[in-house]
Design a protein that fits this description.
Structural class of chain A: alpha/beta
Helix content of chain A: 25-40%
Largest sheet of chain A: 6 strands, mixed
Radius of gyration of chain B: 23 Å
Structural class of chain B: mainly alpha
Order of helices and strands of chain A: EEEHEEHEHHHEHEHEEHEHEEHEHH
Number of strands of chain A: 14
Strand content of chain A: 25-35%
Distance between the termini of chain A: 39 Å
Shape of chain B: elongated
Oligomer: heterodimer
Order of helices and strands of chain B: HHHHHHHHHHHHHH
Number of strands of chain B: 0
Shape of chain A: elongated
Distance between the termini of chain B: 35 Å
Strand content of chain B: under 5%
Helix content of chain B: over 70%
Chain lengths: 341, 309
């Protein structure tokens, strides 16, 4: 059983300066599975999340995002490494960390047989609020999330988006310093997603620090000040959204040629313009190369016309997460090795 | 028998969830900008010192239990189907098998109803509920809160015990309708029911442990069947001396036989020692020791499993 003997007065929130790190993870590892076939969910992950901003952890399924969130939420203990949450060692003083955090997971972990208000009062009570102050906290969060009309209806009758918002609310009634959102919008329709984004932005404006995991580049782009891309349990890149995109090649020229015979010629044209070997898909006769700026599109069209390469389709577009990913994993020898293993 | 019921309950739950969701989808939630007036909540100022809040094990356990109980009362299918299954099971044993089973100096109703009452704890498996709460993410939420982790499981056990009280009351009521009587004093009767609840509370722990290790509610349901040998290889429904010789010592000494013996002896009153061979006290002491052992073992295992990882 977890001991509750941390009666030191350090459990109160300290004043946070903007430069302080709310999360400091160094070399976190965590393996699941058997000794013979271990799954390395975290393989030496480093992450710094600054106070006063939204940090997004971006990566595909199985990258270790949820494992990281679970470690920060003290739901699991990393095998090795150091994890400080708000300056508190999560392995040594998990109770103190739990006082600082609010968790909204991939599931909307709310009780369908209770009303929205009852759900929030329950969590507030568990956070140590008295009956009266729990009721007050619940009402304030319901208003904040635009759920006061539905507050006294059973959650069974809520839409998926409302459930997620209530789940977000449940992580808020304790007034956490750090909010952990594990893929908060996965499976939501576009409008519910935008509503949830708005709610998250509002929280950030209120001064709550947020760590958010997502598979969607757009989501990270929309919400985060700082993005860490993880793959195979490691951070492979960290930066602002703009920094990461330029790292991946800001834009991408994609061409489909009419005749397969032209692919070789088209490839060398694109290599000259993009300064790297283009990716070629022979089956669809598509070539793509990252380019420095949008002027490259005109250049490509001219060069193709000079060489009489017929174009079926051409476009300039932003890199997708896949491409940011390919670029990053391609540049990182050890992650590529991991991927091959 | 009971497994199918559990199955059916789950299915009903599932169906009701789906229909509710569909219903909800069709109601249009107006998009609206979030009220900016509400921004001035307590966390508006990151430098503000939050009061140190502390939740005691008791408060946390009762809060968690309250949620499970509300879920139960607000899902009428659970209550109705649960009661119907108990009734069916009881009537089948009472009237189908009962005639063929020789129980010496006791009527079959007086022999079997105490066992049914003890069995309500063994059939009210909380394993599926625990597995559901894990799958649904609720346990993760609770585990991330600043409450003693043991209180989450304690809350579950409390709630399941309340359901067992409900099941015991139904069983005794049905028993009275089908010929069962308390032959001892009112105090004996009260003690008999109290023992059923204590044993039921003890049995919540192995089921909670099963729910924790099962990984899914389906597996939890399968694991709940492990209670069956304990129910049937005992003196619950047939006298132990009608079993094969090698089985008798097992049946004679396992916890359910002692528990059923204690409740049965209290129900039979003065006649008990002559019919059962031992007094209610003889059975009760052994049964209570078993109950303590079961709680210590499985509450320990469950808490360890729950705090680890």
């Amino acid at each position: 059983m977890t001991s509750t003997n941390t009666t030191t007065n350090t459990t109160t929130n300290r004043t946070t300066s903007a430069t302080e790190n709310i999360i400091e993870a160094v070399g976190l590892t965590k393996s699941f599975g058997t000794a013979k076939q271990p799954v390395h969910a975290l393989a030496g992950l480093d992450l710094i999340a600054r106070a006063g901003q939204v940090t997004a952890v971006l990566g595909p399924n199985g990258a270790g995002k949820s494992t990281l969130v679970r470690a920060v939420a003290t739901l699991l203990r990393p095998d090795t490494g150091r994890l400080l949450v708000g300056g508190v060692d999560a392995a040594r003083r998990p109770e103190q960390v739990r006082r600082m955090i609010g968790l909204a997971g991939q599931h909307a972990a709310v009780e369908g047989a209770m009303t929205g208000r009852e759900n929030l009062v329950m969590v507030a009570r568990l956070f140590g609020h008295s009956r009266r102050s729990a009721t007050k906290a619940a009402a304030s969060v319901l208003a904040q999330l635009g759920l006061d009309d539905a507050a006294d209806r059973l959650v069974r009758g809520y839409s998926g988006g409302m459930r997620r918002r209530l789940d977000l609310g449940a992580s808020l009634v304790g007034a956490p310093r750090l909010l952990l959102l594990d893929e908060p919008t996965t499976g939501l329709d576009p409008r519910s997603r935008i509503e949830l984004w708005d709610a998250i932005r509002q929280l950030v404006a209120d001064g709550t620090d947020v760590l958010l995991t997502t598979q969607y580049l757009e989501e990270a782009d929309q919400l985060a000040d700082q993005i860490t891309i993880v793959d195979h349990g490691r951070a492979i890149a960290t930066g602002s959204p703009d920094e990461l995109k330029s790292l991946a090649g800001l834009d991408l020229v994609e061409v489909r040629v009419r005749r397969s015979e032209d692919i070789a010629a088209a490839s060398s044209v694109l290599a000259t313009i993009g300064g790297e070997e283009p990716r070629v898909d022979h089956a669809t006769r598509k070539l793509a190369v990252t380019v420095a700026d949008s002027a490259a599109l005109g250049e490509t069209v001219r060069a193709f016309a000079e060489q009489r390469i017929d174009i079926e389709d051409i476009g300039l577009r932003r890199p997708t997460l896949d491409e940011v990913f390919l670029t990053l994993t391609g540049n990182t020898a050890d992650t590529a090795d991991l991927a091959a293993a | 028998m009971t497994g199918q019921t559990i199955n059916r309950i789950n299915r009903i739950n599932h169906i009701s969830n789906i229909t509710n969701q569909e219903h909800a989808m069709s109601t249009i939630t107006p998009t609206r900008s979030l009220p900016t007036a509400a921004i001035t909540t307590s966390h508006a100022d990151p430098g503000a010192v939050r009061p140190v809040l502390r939740t005691s094990t008791g408060t946390a356990a009762f809060t968690v239990a309250g949620r499970t109980l509300r879920k139960f009362w607000r899902t009428p299918q659970l209550i109705v189907v649960g009661a119907l299954t108990s009734a069916m099971f009881l009537l089948i044993f009472r009237y189908v098998f009962g005639g063929a089973i020789q129980t010496g100096g006791v009527t079959y109703a007086d022999f079997m109803i105490p066992a049914m009452a003890v069995g309500s704890g063994l059939f009210a498996s909380g394993a599926v509920g625990v597995a559901d709460d894990i799958e649904g993410g609720l346990f993760d939420r609770l585990r991330s809160l600043p409450i003693p982790r043991g209180s989450i499981l304690l809350g579950r056990s409390l709630a399941d015990t309340v359901l067992i009280v409900w099941a015991t009351v139904i069983t005794v009521a049905l028993g009275y309708a089908t010929g069962f009587r308390f032959h001892g004093s009112a105090l004996d009767a009260l003690a008999a029911v109290a023992l059923c609840v204590v044993f039921g509370a003890a049995f919540t722990w192995p089921f909670i442990y099963m729910g924790l290790v099962s990984g899914s509610s389906q597996a939890a349901q399968g694991m709940s069947f492990m209670a069956f040998p304990f129910v049937f290889v005992s003196s619950s429904y047939v006298p132990v001396d009608s079993m094969p010789g090698w089985m008798q010592p097992v049946a004679q000494h396992q916890p359910v036989t002692q528990m059923v013996g204690a409740v049965r002896a209290l129900a039979l009153g003065d006649n008990a020692e002559a019919v059962l061979g031992h007094s209610s006290g003889w059975f009760a002491i052994r049964a209570l020791v078993w109950a303590v052992v079961i709680i210590a073992l499985f509450a320990g295992l469950a808490t360890r499993k729950f705090s680890r990882s």
